[in-house]
Amino acid sequence: MNYEDVMNLAQRRGYLIRSAEAYPNTPAGFWDYGPLGVSLRNRYVEMWRKSIVKRDEMIEIDAAQIMPRSVFEASGHISNFTDPVVVCGKCRSLYRPDKLIEEKLGRATPENLPDAKYDELLKEHGIRCAKCGTPLSGTKRFNMMFKVGVGPQGDEAYLRPETCQGIFADIPFLFKTQRVKLPKGFAQVGKSFRNEIAPRQGVLRLREILQAEIEVCFDPGATATPRFDVAADYELSIAKGDVEPVPTRVSDAISAGTVPNKLVGYYLYLIQSFYEDAVGLKKEEIRLRTLTDVEKAFYSKVAYDLEVRTSVGWLELVACNYRSDYDLKRHSEVSGTDYTVEVDGRKVLPHIFELSMGVDRSLYVILERAYRSEKDAKGGDRVYLSLRPGLAPILAGVFPLVSKDGLDVEAERIYEELRADYDLFYDESGSIGRRYARADEAGVPFCVTVDQDTLTKGEVTVRSRDDRAQVRVKTDELGDWLEAKLVSG
Ligand SMILES: [Zn+2]
At CA 396, angle to CA 392 and CA 400, rounded to 5? Predict the structure, then answer.
């Protein structure tokens, strides 16, 4: 199984659609979610909300996607949110120098080396334009924000490159209206936009991404969160660099200085355990890679990338950044608004620890994990998505064995009775084997078949997707049966 297998299935079954697929020359980096994709995404986001946001009593907001230039002057994106580019002096072809060096050397190159350093490396390794062979030099910066003009005068504004700026901008209002007691997490799910120079990794490198972000505001003088106890003995998958993770107790990681304080330790526990418990990944399939100074974003004091092992290598799903007081200080300076919060009579400018999750990539990982391919009884290939009932977009298919003798009427009756409470689909076209195969590919956990016994004994056959085991269930108990599967899975 590889990336292409997963994406082919996702497109065949309506999880993902290439944006504006009907049109030629559509730019890369934009994907649509089809019906099953939307449903999977909704379930995933709800799981995140329940396991992290609600559990930790965070405050969720939904800010505007377009914000004025001054917000991004404050955030530093106007001057710092850039990627290096190099343009061929002869044929004007455009490249990312870091990617060219990476391809040449076969290992990752940091995105934010000084421009002169890229030129030096390009020269040292004799890297030339792929089209015309001219040696490449003259690295410069390209700002990756999408600029928009607001109103008829086209006032300068930008599509936000990260959702958190909406949270930061709203902080004074939130402090005023929500009786905030530090530490406090603020959460947001929404689109962010990054004008990537040449995205080539399909759904793994998008120009329009869905983020689920958490910004924890805390008093830097009080980092002993009362919830720390549940996290103290939990083993984080710490990786110091591009190496295998080493299970390290949170309290040991703090003693060793790998994690700066209890608050950061607690939130690293919260995010890693989400991928273990809710998503179902094993500890050794996750790593919290500590970033070096050159790898870190410009605002970051200490940073970890939560990465997951996939068929394309370790894939970053969550950026965990200790942003210090950088953001609130800057927003306070540029806006002229007081961003402090009162703690025991003192005015405190909160520090920020951030868990910035890429939802699209997380969903890709879920699909890749669920992808199964095996030989069926007749030697053909059977492909299915082993999504658990709580995540699967459709819980069950309802099929009449044949579309006659009243079986179709009874199957439709069962479908109509239960479809308001459960996500079901009705299918009577083709052989029962074909219908099973379609449902398997879509990741439907159960298929309910109506046969002669349904009419005479009031029983249906329920087939499970993964092991293809069949059980008889009383027709009038089918709702309870499905409910039990949903609750346990
Ligand atoms: Zn050239």
Answer: 155
Cβ neighbours of residue 238 closer than 8 Å, sequence gap 6 or more = 245, 246, 247, 248, 253, 258, 287, 288, 290
Written as six digits, the tokens of 189 are 């799910």
Residue 404, domain CATH: 3.40.50.800
> C-alpha angle 225/229/230, rounded to 5°?
110
Query: How far is CA 480 from each of CA 424, 484, 487, rounded to the nearest angstrom?
Result: 14, 6, 10
The string of pLDDT tens digits covering residues 183-240 is: 999 999 999 999 998 888 889 999 999 999 999 999 999 988 878 999 999 999 999 9
Contact 258, 248 (CB under 8 A): yes
What is the structure's pLDDT at 298?
Answer: 74
Distance 28 CA to ligand 1 centre (A): 22
d(CA 398, CA 195): 44
Q: How many Å lie between the centroid of ligand 1 and the Cα of residue 89?
A: 7
- The single-letter code of the amino acid at 71 is V
DSSP H or E stretch at residue 308: strand 302-310
Q: What would the pLDDT profile of 165-182 be if each residue is shown by its tens digit?
A: 999 999 999 998 988 899
416 and 309 assigned to the same domain:
no
At 313, list the tokens. 């290598």
Alpha-carbon 46 to chain mean position: 13
Q: What's 278's DSSP letter?
A: I
185 CA → ligand 1 middle, Å: 49
Residues 103-122: tens digit of each pLDDT: 888 887 777 788 999 999 99
Query: Do 313 and 352 belong together in one domain?
Result: yes
> How many whole angstroms from 110 Cα to the centroid of ligand 1?
24
- Residues 316-363: tens digit of each pLDDT: 999 999 999 999 999 999 999 999 998 889 999 999 999 999 999 999
Packing angle of the helix pair 359-370, 3-12 (nearest 10 deg): 100
Indicate whether 364 and 236 sit together in one domain. yes
- Residue 129: what residue type? C
Nearest Cα to Cα of residue 288 among 312, 273, 268, 260: 268
